[in-house]
Amino acid sequence: MSMDALRARLSRLPIWRGQVALEPLQGGLTNISFVATDASGKYVVRCGDDIPAHHVSRERERAASRAAFEAGLSPEVIHVEEGITVLRFIAARTFTETDLRAEAPRIVALLKTCHREVGHRLRGAANMFWPFHVIRDYVRLIDADAKYLALADRLEAAQVPLPIVFGHNDLLPGNVLDDGARLWLIDWEYAGFGTAMFDLANLSSNGEFAPADEKALLDAYFDGKADDGLYRAFAAMKAASLLREALWAMVSDVHLKTPGADYRAHARTYLARLDRLMA
Question: Fewer Cβ close by (within 10 Å): the C or N end of the chain?
Answer without folding.
Answer: C
